[in-house]
């Protein structure tokens, strides 16, 4: 069990991150939509912004579910397959968010995403070499 404790901790960190992000988007939709529209006002119209938020929210919910399944799978059968899928999907989501921030030239925000990508990739590499 302790063999997988580091991977479980990384998954827990990502779960809290994505679950809280999805929660904030769902239960404070108006403010989220307003903030995103303000951020992307010179680049995208509100319809594209709304669609983007829905896509990101869908990926975050899917990822949170996948991480939960991965933790259960690690604890119950010591399988890392779902954890690897979660780490890959996490990296994919971070890259999507990075592209969005780079489009509006939010360099400080995009540099802050780097740590989440690094954490996801460490988890992926670690899970592949156990």
Report on this structure.
The protein is mostly helical. It has one domain. Helix content is 85%, strand content 0%. The protein is built from five helices and no strands. It has helices spanning 5-27, 29-39, 46-77, 81-103, 107-128. It is elongated and about 50 Å long. 19% of the residues are buried. The model has no long low-confidence stretch (mean pLDDT 96).
Concise structural overview:
The protein is mainly alpha-helical. It has one domain. It has helices at about 5-25, 30-40, 45-75, 80-105, 105-130.
List the defining traits of the structure above:
85% helix, 130 residues, 5 helices, mainly alpha
The strand count comes to 0
SSE pattern, N- to C-terminal = HHHHH
Q: CA-to-CA gap between the ends?
A: 12 Å
Mean pLDDT: 96
Ranges where pLDDT stays below 50 over 5 or more residues in a row are none
SSE topology:
Layout: H1 5-27, H2 29-39, H3 46-77, H4 81-103, H5 107-128
